[in-house]
Amino acid sequence: MARMKFLCDAERCIECNSCVTACKNEHEVPWGVNRRRVVTINDGVPGERSISVACMHCSDAPCMAVCPVDCFYRTDEGVVLHDKDLCIGCGYCFYACPFGAPQFPQSGAFGLRGKMDKCTFCAGGPEADGSEEEFRKYGRNRLAEGKLPICAEMCSTKALLGGDADVLADIYRERVTMRGKGAEIWGWTTAYGKPERQQEQQQERAKEGAKS
Amino acid sequence: MTLIRKTSGAAARSGRLGRALAGMAPQTMDRRAFLKRSGITVGAGAFASQLPFALIGRAEAAAEARADGKIEVRRTVCTHCSVGCAIDAEVKNGVWIGQEPVFDSPINMGSHCAKGASVREHGHGEHRLRYPMKLENGKYKRISWDKALDEISARLMEIRKESGPDAVYWIGSSKHSNEQAYLMRKFVSLWGTNNCDHQARICHSTTVAGVANTWGYGAMTNSYNDMQNSKAMLFIGSNAAEAHPVSLLHTLHAKETGAKMIVVDPRFTRTAAKADQYVRIRSGTDVAFLFGVLYHIFKNGWEDKKYINDRVYGMEKVRDEVMAKWTPDKVQEVCGVPEAEVLQVAETMAKNRPSTIVWCMGQTQHSSGNAFVRASCILQLALGNIGVSGGGANIYRGHDNVQGATDVGPNPDSLPGYYGIAAGSWKHWCAVWGIDYEWLKGRFASQAMMEKPGITVSRWIDGVLEKNELIDQDPNLRAVFYWGHAPNSQTRGLEMKKAMDKLDLLVVIDPYPSATAAMAAMPAPDPKEVNPNRAVYLLPAATQFETSGSCTASNRSIQWREKVIEPLFESKPDHTIMYLFAKKLGFEKELCKNIKVVNDEPVAEDILREINRGTWTIGYTGQSPERLKLHMQNMHTFDPKTLKARGGPCDGEYFGLPWPCYGTPELKHPGTPNLYDTSKHVMEGGGNFRANFGVERDGVNLLAEDGSASKGADLQFGYPEFDHVLLKKLGWWDELTDAEKAKAEGKNWKTDLSGGIIRVVMKNHGCHPFGNAKARAVVWNFPDPIPLHREPIYSPRPDLVEKYPTHDDKKAFWRMPTLYKTLQQKNVQDKVHEKFPLILTSGRLVEYEGGGDETRSNPWLAELQQEAFVEINPKAANDRGIRNNDWVWLKTPTGAQLRVRAQVTERVAPDTCFMPFHFAGHWQGRDLLEYYPDKAAPVVRGEAVNTATTYGYDSVTMMQETKTTLCQVVKA
After folding, report:
1. Which of A61, B269, B589, B812 has a CA positioned 20 to 30 A from the CA of residue A40?
2. Are B61 and A145 a contacting pair at CB < 8 A?
3. Burial of B469 from C-beta contacts in 10 A (0-12 / 13-18 / 19+)
4. Binary contact (A73, B113; C-beta < 8 A)
5. Can you list the alpha helix ranges (DSSP code H) found in chain A?
6. pLDDT (tens digit per residue) in B863-875
7. The whole model's pTM is what?
8. What is the DSSP letter of B718?
9. What was the ipTM of the complex prediction?
10. Contact predicate A109/A115, CB 8 Å
11. Residue B21 pLDDT class (50, 70, 90 cuts)
């Protein structure tokens, strides 16, 4: 089973914001809510680098750990999703998230904060795949259509990759080998643990897979 | 309990995914197999983010979607820049519901920038103009199409009767399709004037003139894709990362495979952030810099001597000039760059060949822009980089179809295909149109006016305001059509407002006419100056997603757009509106003699066929609608590195049949991927420099030297262009069929409507119809045959104005008196540089395009850039007590002042300020919202930099000088 991850290559990201508008377009995300955003460091001086940030669908997701109503769940592909019917908009996940992914619309049934909204890896929510209800709450479910997250698919320079972690790692390794720099992937250790831990997890998954 | 519910939901999803994955399982492990199947070489695999989607089984999902039979996929092309990114639009019940990346496109491989990723918003159009409107008592009121057409036409006929056809000015658009742009030129010709223009004037006119006069054609020589073959890339005056983001897909790939990237710019741009070397120059000193680079090339003997001998005229003269005048100390004095940095650029470009050069508005928009671009050409000629894959002059165009509109659209000095406007040119096109030349001549004020270049879009305001006795046509302008053009992209905004108020008729035809509408409706500073009889109309045009037609990308590839949705609200396609006006003005039969008209809409395919029948000069003849559509359907067969199809129905052709695609469609020319490339046969896209400037000058041979010709040519030496006489002399005449002979008799390759001369020359003899000559390092017909550094009209350096003064004033230049020295000297005397000590330059933001009305109306984009701003260096800011995000007044010598946010940043040097040019809707501190038509104001409004920009025009093309002027910034 594929383990879905995002990878953003800071050597390639040009802060064009296609990931941001692609997401807005695909899921009809309202003004003021940004499931994905581009962060630039050293803006305007040599060493300027940009990185596209959204929910990283962490292996050991802090949001899941702190949610008082347990509205998060993880799919078999490792995508971290949540149930808006359960969410009470308390904002704990926002404080816990190292990537600032959870977003809180200004209006909604649960008072000022409303229900939390975040990147779904274009995998929708608990409702039936491709249903109108699912679209209304979470946006389009591209994974169910056999597609990958729109932000990565439309990235202008293929800086943002989204998909099976093994394949991403292969692509990225080839780039790093070719250009001889940029081996560190921003956010991966935070999201997916140290390399040893990732290997362990993979082995565990392989074992589980073998059992079932 | 909730967990159970959630798990079951997830299980259902993983079930489908699981099935999909199971089917693809073996392939997930085999990357090589995927790469092969998808036609991506292993090297290009580093692109592949498209890789993973295959793992999940797209085919199955697609079949499912199709099975429900409701969603149609229409293939179109992004309308926001010249890269030409393909888009698959998903349409359900006539509504544009989804936008999918086209991984098959060899140009963008599914990629988009912020603008491209959000084009579906055009299907919402919440901020569009919805119906025709008329300005009454300061407010726009809804009227019907019939009433609008009747009233406008009546007013036009009245003006024509009183003042003649030259009193009307037609501003066309680089966002029109080729068919619309072409029809517009024809429409204006039938109206009887050359007073028409479009964005290319203020975009790359200096490039087109400078480059075409150097080696033949005025276009980008290679392609974005071909930069993958470059070993060094010099960006000078181009911020591709924001202006052409998807081009970086190819650029960064080249960089990763070892190419060196250099960015030369007054501003540390996002492109510079990706460069190996960044060089900061003072704005407007490109000639000094480039000649500084050449100094080191000549000094070290790095020039390509054989190439220069065989293929370049006049390089010795340039060399003498460079060595005498552009020693490192002079270079540093003028552009502020130390010798070591210049030497490093020279060495990188010379020792990593093929090396390419990229330029955009940073070079073109100057009062001597024509010299800047030629200096770039000369550098590439010295290095032997032109006509070479991986080399070339990669001149990135701006709008999605600015290349096409330049090629076949509304230009004041030329009919479609750069034929010019001499009597012979008119006769050629009259023959293609099936129109009597004498009748057409009668439509003009006189034959002299028919052959005199019209006013340019950069100067229409002077056509209105200038004293009548000083302009080179009988009437002043009384009516102006803004047909797909923003007003805030032209300089001298304050005077533009005056000109708008003085007109008798202003008609704005646009999906988003907002800035023009608001400017026209807002009160005049002096109400007495407003013409009481002025009429202002707004007509809603359809976007390119609401019609079909072709567009030409920067690399000269032509792509066909399918119609995605029906025109929204009451909007109509531009060519339909042209036809409706032609009907009212009485020349619809002439306009569409060879073109079928369905429900008042001229058929786009028929228009393209007419373009094909007439545009021999630049090879717009082979791209029939059928061939173009075949390419759009078979994108996956084209290689993203070479653009060439391998197998399939387009085997051997280049994607989009990049012009020149010579001869008739039946000749099957494959298009030309890289211009002037002698390593290929002419029937395989090869070529050489054009013989367009005679065969000899002052005893020096202008044709190519012996042994230098395109691969496999029967004539392996220089030769002039082909006509019936040369064909007969060579004994090739009898290879024409009798039918061809009848048409070709007395003609040359450009005017032979049979295409026979081209067929015989190219197919039978492997020669180039336009001859085989040398490129010109010295362009003797320009004001500065060898490019000269001249200080801008508003120079921050009076000491250098003395050494490098601008041109003498011109009297009748594109029908306008034009100031150079008088104004420059006056600025020095008035000490303008002391009152306005900062250089003001302008440029792009990735989220917006051009004047910005369209993109600022798209909430997905507007959210990302909500305020106009000026970038100012921390030193300059601190000296003025300005802190980041403060409101400031930006003042210029025109008396204008702009209220914008200060962005304090080291992107700019302490002597330079930068403003993005996409904003409009604020006017010297005031929000114009109340003057917009109802519901048609963009989401974001801000100060337009061009409200405050100054006078200054290129000495060949009348390009406006936006990139170097002066300003002062004070805290608001």
Report:
1. A61
2. yes
3. exposed
4. no
5. 18-27, 62-66, 92-96, 132-138, 150-154, 165-179, 188-192, 195-211
6. 999 999 999 999 9
7. 0.93
8. -
9. 0.92
10. yes
11. very low
